[in-house]
Specification:
The protein contains ten helices and nine strands. The chain is α/β, with parallel strands linked by helices. It has a nine-stranded mixed β-sheet, with helices on both faces. The radius of gyration is 25 Å and the shape is elongated. The mean pLDDT is 76.
Amino acid sequence: MSRLSIVLPAYNEELMVGKTCKVLKEELEKAGIAYELVLVDDGSKDCTWEEIKKAGFKDTNVVGIHFSRNFGKEAAICAGLAQAEGDVVAVMDCDLQHPPETLLQMYALWQKGYEVIEGVKLSRGKESVIHKECAGFFYGIMSKATGIDMKNASDFKMMDRKVVDSILSMPERNMFFRAESAWVGYKTTTVGFYVQEREAGESKWSTWSLIKYAFTNIVAFTTVPLQFVTIAGAACFLCSLVLLIYSLVQFFGGRAVEGYTTTLIVLLMIGSAVMLSLGIIGYYIAKIYEEVKKRPRYIVSKILRGTGEQQH
């Protein structure tokens, strides 16, 4: 019988861990699906790990992974995929904003032969107008930069075992799960879902963290920002060419060019383009530096399987 693994990254989710495990257990048992719940505590500052242990005592299908510190959601997803033992693996949020009943639709599509089932947001739930606009803007940038439609994409998806193995075989340290799960290919389909309201706790995504997340993942997945350096150089060259022609025309016409303002503008424009270009190049060099050091994506301090907790 096929087994479904569900990877649930959790950061400061003490109020939702127990409820999420209970709801998923009920839904999957009702559908007759063999399962395991892989909860990854991403260095939470609250009692998330204690709640995971409680859930493990109530349900032996619960697997708990505890990080030595906070490594981020991408690392938590990667750790969950590495520990998942199912024939098919789903990734979803631990706050039940990804509806559990949608898992059953995904599972049915997997049984029909689809190897990647993407959850596509039909709504973003209740968010402030500013946060919604910022999210739309940055996902738009990510879509253009990565060449993958990220507008309504989410980490909520289900993948066949061979897809998971393909993702885990990628050696890079800075993983962008949403893009990599699309990049590997395979037979893919989508399922729409409405984002549910969070029952407890609060969102971990501020506008600033969304900006940082967007830029980090663009750099991790594509070299498009480096093209800005070429574009900026070409723009500065064209502006310089225009000013050169204008200056020559003025010179041969016997009129002196008023140079201070023009020179100041040109210097500021070129200086800004150079500094911004160096910043982008520097960020890529920093990521290369992180990659060549070959530090692990995450460090697991404890693993819980059933009622047994193991130290790492």
